[in-house]
Task: structure prediction
Amino acid sequence: MFLVYDYGIRDLWIVNVGDLKPMELPISYFMELAYDFETWGTGNPNRTGEFLETWTERQFGHAADEETTEGIARVLADYTKMNGSRKPEVTYADTYSLLHYNEAQRVLEKAIRLEKDAQTYYELVQKEQKDAYYQLVYYPAVASANVTKMQIYASLNHKYSGFQPQSVLANHYAALVEEAIAKDVQMQEEYNNKISRGKWEGMMSSAHIGYVNWNDEGWQYPEFKYFEPKEKAMMIVDVEGTNGGFTAETVALTPFTSLQKERYRITVSNVAFDSHQPVLTYAASGVCCGRIPALVRVRYE
Result:
């Protein structure tokens, strides 16, 4: 829209919004730009944060204190940024890397934090505004975060079920995928049939996960699977930045450097539900003086 205005198209703008109902925030921004481009346009860059605060104050300022409305604005900023980096309907189990730069874990932590923040402010707004908050803030934020979680959990399920031997963590993440799917269904039911006495029946019924075409034909929830744990225990160690799991000998971490503040995740799991406790021995020397690999040794005790 900035480019359109700067190229001189200022008499008429047309935007395809699909369904008006869930697009209140972006449509409001579009209309504000059209009405007062001098305030929000290229002449005053980097004011989207201010717009979100103003918009949130307009919607909830009469039903929440200043600290709460500022927090709601942050939730709006976080979920729109997350969806801007990858739309939920085209987020898949392999979208975020489990292998490189701790990407999937970092995105997962953001999604979990976004859910918690949205819930916090839901509890703080006044009762008569909770339906409005659910529609305008909670549902788009939490439903989006839930899809991200679902896909990353599916990726972790694929990872641990692909180990030889398989890790019981595969079943843990399969259960989390099922939980996320159930939450997706429950939230649609809440929006479609419960809030505002069923006013928005069917509004959130369209598919929004796992697109395989340009439209929703053939959409699907992510695949996951359970396996039968073994009877005899065997410890598996997997280290961030490496493929597969290790059941014996020495595991080498990705090298540390003297210039970065590297942190690597070490996960210990089992092939069976067993009471044996693994013992980790971690050794790293000369980290400040060059690329020295850290070693991890494992044993049962």
About this structure: The CA atoms of residues 25 and 88 lie 17 Å apart. The two ends are 64 Å apart (CA to CA).
